[in-house]
């Protein structure tokens, strides 16, 4: 069949994008693929060439074809942007799902992070960020309830920052960020399309209003194969 090379191509695209074929994995030889798909080596070469052209594999003369790491999304370290603003720059469909939204009493840990008293009211919004059909970010947001109006699921699905700044006229000024690499939790594996990665990239955000009030503490948990954290620095 003339388009068998496309079948081979799409088979390997699915395996690579799903994580079944990891970066640096070696593909079967041309002879093995020809036997597997009951086609000619020339058809196999055509499929491998297309995979190479589109950045899925690279071919090393005398060694074979190897899977390349998939392109990662640039996540600005120094900027303070919402997911909605970040999503507008991506070329893949993005979706926010609200896993949990509730008002609760601050635990000693949350009280320490938000510089409030244990038992003070806090809004908790747990959101799953989906990019290109994959759930790859888990945002665990906590807001001082005395600093923001009541939240709704509709607001959380859209943009909390846009709601605060454009609707409620609350100005967000700056943030302190801490980036760590941690072991994934059961919650990470349950809520994200996590595959078998042994680590997760965690960005802790402490966000302040224009008057200097710390009003938000966030843990933003990212699947490690999908993001790279970038910054621009100038030597003074």
From TrEMBL:
GO molecular-function terms, A-Z: DNA binding; DNA-binding transcription factor activity
GO aspect biological process, one term: negative regulation of DNA-templated transcription
Record InterPro entries: Bact_HTH_transcr_reg (IPR050679), Chorismate_lyase_/UTRA_dom_sf (IPR028978), TreR (IPR012770), Tscrpt_reg_HTH_GntR (IPR000524), UTRA (IPR011663), WH-like_DNA-bd_sf (IPR036388), WH_DNA-bd_sf (IPR036390)
Keywords assigned: DNA-binding, Repressor, Transcription, Transcription regulation
Residues covered by the HTH gntR-type domain: 2-70
Taxonomic superkingdom: Bacteria
CDD domains in alphabetical order: WHTH_GntR
PANTHER family according to UniProt: HTH-TYPE TRANSCRIPTIONAL REGULATOR TRER, MANNOSYL-D-GLYCERATE TRANSPORT/METABOLISM SYSTEM REPRESSOR MNGR-RELATED
Protein name (database record): Trehalose operon repressor
């Amino acid at each position: 069949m003339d388009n068998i090379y496309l079948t081979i191509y799409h088979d390997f695209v699915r395996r690579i994008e799903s994580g079944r074929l990891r970066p640096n994995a070696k593909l079967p030889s041309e002879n093995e693929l020809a036997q597997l798909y009951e086609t000619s080596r020339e058809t196999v070469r055509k499929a491998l060439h297309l995979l190479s052209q589109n950045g899925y594999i690279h071919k090393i003369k005398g060694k074979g074809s190897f899977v390349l790491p998939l392109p990662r999304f640039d996540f600005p370290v120094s900027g303070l942007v919402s997911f909605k603003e970040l999503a507008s720059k991506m070329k893949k469909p993005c979706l926010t799902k609200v896993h949990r939204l509730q008002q609760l009493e601050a635990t000693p840990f949350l009280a320490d992070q938000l510089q409030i008293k244990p038992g003070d009211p806090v809004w908790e919004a747990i959101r799953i960020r989906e990019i290109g059909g994959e759930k790859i970010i888990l945002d665990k947001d906590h807001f001082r309830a005395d600093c923001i109006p009541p939240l709704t699921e509709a607001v959380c699905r859209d943009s909390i920052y846009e709601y605060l700044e454009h609707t409620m006229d609350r100005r967000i000024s700056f943030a302190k960020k801490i980036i760590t690499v941690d072991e994934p939790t059961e919650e990470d594996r349950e809520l994200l399309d996590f595959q078998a990665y042994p680590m997760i990239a965690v960005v802790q955000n402490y966000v302040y209003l224009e008057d200097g009030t710390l009003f938000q503490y966030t843990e933003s948990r990212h699947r490690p194969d999908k993001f790279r954290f970038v910054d621009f620095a100038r030597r003074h």
